Structures are given as C-alpha cells and as structure tokens.
Amino acid sequence: MSYAEILVAMGEDDAAYQRASYAGMLAGQFRASLLGVLSRWPRAPEVEPNATIGMVGELLAEARTSCRLDLATVEARFRATVGASVDQVFFAGRIGSMTEAVLREARRADLIVIGRPTSSGSDDGFCDAQVLLTRGGRPVLVVPPAYQARSLPWHVAVAWRDCRASRRVLREALPMLRRAQQVSVITLNEVLSATPASSAADVADFLAGHGVRAKAVGRSGAASLRELLHVVDEDDVDLLVAPAYCSNQLVCSELVRQTTRMLTRCRIPCLLAN
Question: Which superfamily does 5-143 belong to?
Fold first, then answer.
C-alpha cells in the first residue's frame, strides 16, 4: 500500500504555497502525482443603486472573468512551486465552494492535504475539515501555517483510542509509518468508555506485523489531550496520527471539540481519518 495521488487544497496566501511545497515533498518521496485544487466565489462587484439589470449582468461577468484569471495565476505559481519535486502535477481550478470542490476531486486521491481550520466562517478558499472527514472517505492531513519539512516524518506519534476511526487511520497511515524511524503509540482518554492502556501494546504488535518499528509509550493509564501534545513537543515528533470523529452521536460532539482543540494547538501536521 502506498499513495498514488495526493490532493492539496490551495489558496492565495503564502501558507498555501508552503503547504503545496510540503505536499510536493510527500508526493516526490512516494512517487505519487500531485493534484492542486482551488475553488472560490467571484468577489461581489460594487453596484450603483440606479444600475440596470444589463449593467449588473456585465459586472457579474467581469467578476467571473477576474476570478478565472486569479485561478490561472495560482495554478502557474503552484506548478512552479512543486514542479521540481513531482513528476506529474495536475490542477483543478473552479468557481464555487472550496470544500465541495475538494470533496469532488477527492475521489481520485489517496490523501487530502489541507491547512489548519480557521474561525472566519468564510468558505472562500477554506476547507471544512469536519465535512471532509465525514463525507470525503479519505484520510486528511492537516498542516499548520508556515510548516516546512524537507523529508518524510522521522518520528510519528499515534494517538490510540479503541474505536473504528483509530483502526482505520492506522491503515491509512501505513505508507508514512513504514518510512518512519520511530513510531510511538500513546493511549488517549476515551469518551464515555474505557480504552485499556495495555491496548497500545496490541497496536504496536499490529504495526510490527506490517513492517513498522513501533513501541507503546510507557504510561500509567491513558493520556489526556494536554499530555499528548506535551509528548509531541518534548519528543520531537514531526507527525501526529489520530482518530477524528465517530458514528456514535452521544460522543460525537465531544470528539469534535477534542479534534478541533488538537488541530488548533498542535504545531506539527496531523493525519486524521474517520
């Protein structure tokens, strides 16, 4: 199992091109193709109060033309950014919702790379991580702003919670886990149920069977989110693999809050699956 195509959600800011560079490095290391996706709505034109319907139509047409030119500019810079790292580069530029565009293009990708969620509430160039995780059917790699790396993750931390999402994200992360030099399995506190700390040893054995050098981190009991992030900082971890949400409606809202806090506070990329 490997990644044949990686999708990266683009934008028009510097963080988007840094994210594209990181995704390009991953694609190059896995000999995968890279697909950049950007979709945005045209900027609303200023309309005079006495403007006729025909005049409004012309202004809207100009706004759409300007939007297409912006997309072409982003595509050119995207290709220049990743061209030296990746053999096959594709770009999908559209007018409309960014989240819906990524969902549509995700059917051809093995991995989705997006930026950290924001609280702006705007969908112009912003991907909703929760929607991608619940509807996309693909693992999502969330990259913090200004993050840079020249090689694959060396030390990976696996946040283990005994649930379906944890088991799935382990399989989705196998290409990266096999290439890592160190993999630490950390048991998380469960929501409304118990995850035995001893289950981390079972996970390490599972990974060993797939050629991954993994070990259960020795802890007395399960770790809280704060403790997990402390381990990530102290042990020089450069990728966090974690479960996202679940189908149990009683605990889903709490898991959403936990995942959001984790993405907000974590200073390294987080690979999530649902």
Answer: HUPs (3.40.50.620)
Structural domain boundaries in the chain: 5-143, 155-273
Distances from the Cα of 9 to the Cα of 28, 100, 126, 246, angstroms: 17, 11, 8, 24
One DSSP character per residue, 260-273 reads HHHHHH-SS-EEEE
| Residue entry with tokens 């096999």 | 178
> Do 165 and 244 contact (CB within 8 A), yes or no?
yes
Instruction: Supply 113's token pair.
Output: 């790379």
pLDDT recorded at residue 249: 44
pLDDT of residue 248: 47
Q: What is the pLDDT of residue 251?
A: 40
Residue pair 85/25 in contact (Cβ under 8 Å)? The answer is yes
CA of 22: how far to CAs of 25, 111, 163, 269, in Å? 5, 13, 30, 10
Cα gap 259→253, rounded to integer Å = 10
Residues 154 and 187: beta-carbon distance below 8 Å: no
User: Tokens 């770790």, residue?
Assistant: 223
User: How deeply is 122 buried, as exposed, middle or buried, from its count of CB atoms within 10 A (0-12, 13-18, 19+)?
Assistant: exposed
Q: Indicate the SS3 state at residue 182.
A: strand
Superfamily the domain 155-273 falls into: HUPs (3.40.50.620)
CB 3 within 8 A of CB 111: yes
In this predicted structure, what is the pLDDT of residue 250? 40
β-strand pairing of 270-273 with 140-143: antiparallel
Domains 5-143 and 155-273 share a fold: yes
Mean pLDDT by 10 residues, the chain (274 residues): 94 92 96 96 77 71 87 96 93 94 96 77 66 90 88 92 88 96 84 61 93 80 69 85 64 57 79 90
